[in-house]
Amino acid sequence: MTPVLDLVGIFVFALSGALQGVRKRLDVVGIAVLAFFTAVGGGIVRDLFIGVQPAALRDTAYLLVPVVATVIAFFWHPQVERAMPAVLVFDAAGLGLFCAVGTAKALHYGIAPMHAVFLGVCTAVGGGVIRDVLSGERPTLLYDRELYAVPAMLGSTAMVALHALDVRGFVATLSSAVLAFTFRILAMRYRWRAPLARGVSKAQ
Using CA atoms, how far apart are residues 14 and 21, in angstroms rounded to an integer? Predict the structure, then answer.
């Protein structure tokens, strides 16, 4: 992932965390904490599993971008809320990019393909889980049937398959990211939902 695309993805996820902090009536410090961990939490978890220093702790931009998102959400959250349909599109793009890059990094460090897929998904959705836990919410990944992790898994699997075919670099990243992004957009557009176990009421 290029630095620009990386920072765009971080910004969108940080904005999601900052808005959650505003809705929970947190102070500016709490909003900033949610913004930071939503943006880079998944990457930190991935790097800790791999056994390397988290990238978020080496580059100042990984701290500054969540701060910018915090300021925007703190002062202009009504306008941002109205723009949520557009934000969700960028969120889907960030999901695609993060799952592809997370998987590529795992493969680069010699992680087995199946585990690399797992770490790619963690990179894409881990920040959202941390956001929900810190804000006192049930993780939407576990309790919302909306397809979010599935597109990330699809993109990560595609990245592993391309790696096995010796397709690497920008082409592999872009192809996997676009696949995950497209699936996520279609899931939002047509309201696709994950199935429930037989005999379980949707109201439960």
Answer: 11
> Can you tell me the distance from the alpha carbon of 144 to that of 123, in angstroms, rounded to the nearest whole number?
19
Q: Across 68-177, where does the E strand assignment appear?
A: none
What is the torsional sign of CA 179, 181, 184, 185? negative
This prediction has a pTM of 0.90
- Confirm if 117 and 2 have CB atoms less than 8 A apart: no
Query: 140: buried, middle or exposed (CB in 10 Å: 19+, 13-18, 0-12)?
Result: middle
Nearest to 35 by CA among 2, 79, 80: 80
The model's pLDDT over 12-61, given as tens digits with 9 standing for 90+, comes to 899 989 999 999 999 999 999 999 999 999 999 999 999 999 988 888 88
> What amino acid occupies position 123?
T
Q: Which of 127, 122, 149, 138 is nearest to 18 (CA)?
A: 127
CA pair distance 200, 196, nearest whole angstrom: 7
